[in-house]
Amino acid sequence: MKKKVTILVVILMAVVCMQAAAQGFQRESFPEGSYSPVTNVNRSGYPRVLADGSVMFRVNASQAQSVQIDLCGTKYDMQKSDGGSWTVTTKPQVPGFHYYFLIVDGVSVADPASQTFYGCGQWSSAIEIKETGMDDFEVQDVPHGEVRTVHYYSKVDESWRPLMIYTPANYSAVEGDLPVVYIQHGGGEDHRGWMEQGRTAQIMDNLIAAGKARPMVVVSSNSNVRSRNGGFGGGYSWQGMQAFREELLENIIPFVEKNYKVRKDRKGRAMCGLSMGGGQSFYIGLRDLDVFANVGVFSTGMFGGIRGASDFDLEKEVPGILTDTPTFNKNFDVFFMTCGEQDPRIEYTRNIVKQMRDKGVDVRFNSYPGDHEWQVWRKSLHEFAQYLFK
Question: Global pTM?
């Protein structure tokens, strides 16, 4: 099977390269109003996003017997032309970032026409659908910060592990220490998610330049960590996340505070995350009161809406949140929750927010159009960052 997959990938890459070369001699006519997304390798080729948000795919694979596009879990059968190319047009897609795969003769592979991103637990193709009014998610003519990948030694799993760290423009000239956000990815992704798919640097650059957010450092870590005793950093129970909690508190934060000009007080730290990372932020952020005073929880499934979620006992999981609410509120400068309006988690999230607000918990909440997807999480970070460290 591995040999078959390798052969298919090589064939597809060769075909795409030949297609790109041919287009250099003869400009292709595309549907009016369509555009090539930024996620394409060849910005003059396929896939194409049409005016209504649907996507036109074309793949040259003359020897294949069947080709499909798997876009966000929906499979589309492609039709073969006499020349050996396969085409299909999807239904209109919501704006944002969407993973997809080619399925060639039953084998799922990344599309060589797309840049690749680590998501869905593997390297994936993706397509970006533009959304009007989201200029803060794009590179603008403003001072730009820097994203670096650095490595620290983990005493939890006894290995060197990566961090991606955003520092704002003119960081080297900053006097004093900056506040810092520890931002967590979801299941099936890693430390690259927020910086690549999530466009953290673009969002922060534009907000800081506009005076809408304070200059801050953002640290994206890989929470897929297993401890020596076999514990895993899952975000759906206090016990289940102890491995990552140890990693964060005893390895990541000390490394960052030793090597970067960041504040070392709880009011100068924030933690946020999406999905699994939202669960981690909820538990660690709200229960480690000496570490964080700012918490953002985006699209977590622990309240319900996913398989394995059960009745969530809020007071049991965060002691004092309902029985000593004034003290809880005093401990946090920002407590912010979000979810996509088409996400199966939305009603469960709204119910938890209502439960908290009925008891007087000072929690901010917002929802955005979209399912369990990056456009929702970009908007979540965009809003959360504007509340912080004021």
Answer: 0.89
